[in-house]
């Protein structure tokens, strides 16, 4: 009798790149015969794909590992692996500290996951693989692994970051910048589209410098993707204000499939804090980029990241951050309290801002952003927008997707046939975090029917 297939559960923390890496690992393992298992308790192999960006992110992983220990005691054959950035950063220490861990691997080992899990299962070994690519080439290749495709998909086009912002762990966990060739990326886009994808988001930690050290550029890749038949929308993250060149800015006004949305982290409004962070731009230079973007594409939505409480940040510095938040009116803001990361330059700076001050600043920034978003979203009531429907939320009984600006919209009267389609939606309700509306096509079809009012929401 043939053996039952091994079951696999992957838990993902961190950024979109980790989401993509998890899909890739499950694709690679599924090809080898593994079957996905939703319940972590029943899976033969459990992989936890981790994030190191803040201290809290690492704590979450370590406490989860503690919680999972009884499962290993009950079934010693169960395989536990740590993948991703915590694996890369802690490596052997993690294997030493956590006896029930069988495998620790970094992001560069993803394509070897089958072989690594196999060594644990078949040879009973504890396995460590945290090497970066040792060659100094600026390109790398990643064979296509597309087990299934959703209407909107992430696609990693490069790895690493050469910036070394002083607070950031990413250059240490993901290594130096290397890009995949345009031809290979476009092939993946075509495969995704064949399987039903309509929107692709290209991923890179410092994506504007895609193609560094090669003759290829991000602008060229966007143009090539724009020509892929059947693809409707293109997005990319994450841009760096210094590296976002005029060619890329101009494309927001000229490339029809490129969505009018850009994530452009500014981190701080204070020039002295920006200098301490080694961000390589000033507040004025950042605001000039925003102006240029709006000139190229007046309907563009800009989202951003902010760090409060960087070492040495004074009240006056923080006020500059609030000033930028008020002036730019971002479409979305991710706000973080500075978290010292061992090995980074900022870690050694000292001059820590007290936790209570960080909390207070975070709160102030959140209140301001919420007010702005509430006003911005309420202004959209009565307008129409196009939403690519991604999924049905069975519990909340609505469909959800994003409009071109990247805002999430909940749609009430769409049918399952809308999943994967772009439909016109009239916004009927809004608050600081949410947009709700009705499918205009159906409204027309049902115009003799009484209008179903949306339930109120907080
Ligand atoms: N490559 C992207 C994303 C980096 S991580 C970029 O350059 O923007 C995502 C966000 O986490 C960063 O933009 C920053 O706001 C935040 N972040 C990074 N390191 C941090 C740290 N040590 N403490 C708090 N927030 C941090
Ligand atoms: Fe980190 Fe800066 Fe690189 Fe972004 S650009 S990944 S913040 S080092
Ligand atoms: Fe986290 Fe690594 Fe992404 S540290 S944010 S998972 S690159």
Describe what is shown at a glance.
By secondary structure, the chain is of the alpha/beta class.
The counted number of beta strands is 19
CATH superfamily of the largest domain: tm_1862 like domain
By helix and strand content, what is the structural category?
Answer: alpha/beta
Give the oligomeric state of the chains in this entry, treating copies of one chain as homo and distinct chains as hetero.
Answer: single chain
Instruction: Bin the strand percentage.
Output: 15-25%
Q: From the alpha carbons, calculate the radius of gyration and give it in angstroms.
A: 23 Å
Q: What is the fold-level CATH name, i.e. the topology of the largest domain?
A: pyruvate-formate lyase- activating enzyme
Count of helical regions = 13
Helix content: 25-40%
What is the CATH domain class of the largest domain?
Alpha Beta
Q: Which stretches of 5+ consecutive residues score pLDDT under 50?
A: 445-458
Number of domains: 3
Distance between the termini: 57 Å
Bound molecules: S-adenosyl-L-homocysteine, iron/sulfur cluster, FE3-S4 cluster
Instruction: Note the main sheet.
Output: 6 strands, parallel
Mean pLDDT: 93
Please state the overall shape, judged from the principal axes of the Cα atoms: globular
Give the second-level CATH assignment, the architecture of the largest domain. Answer: Alpha-Beta Horseshoe
| Largest sheet: spatial strand order | 2-1-3-4-5-6
Fold and architecture overview:
There is one protein chain. By secondary structure, the chain is an alpha/beta fold. The protein has three domains: 7-129, 3-Layer(aba) Sandwich (Rossmann fold); 152-377, pyruvate-formate lyase- activating enzyme (Alpha-Beta Horseshoe); 384-446, OB fold (Dihydrolipoamide Acetyltransferase, E2P), CATH 2.40.50.140. The protein has 13 helices and 19 strands. It has helices at residues 16-31, 55-74, 85-97, 113-123, 170-174, 182-194, 218-226, 246-254, 271-277, 283-296, 315-328, 355-378, 440-445, and strands spanning 7-12, 35-36, 45-50, 79-84, 103-105, 127-129, 152-156, 158-159, 178-179, 199-203, 233-237, 261-263, 301-308, 332-337, 384-393, 398-402, 408-411, 422-430, 435-439. It has a six-stranded parallel sheet with strand order 2-1-3-4-5-6, sandwiched between helices. A five-stranded mixed β-barrel has the order 15-16-17-19-18. The radius of gyration is 23 Å and the shape is globular.
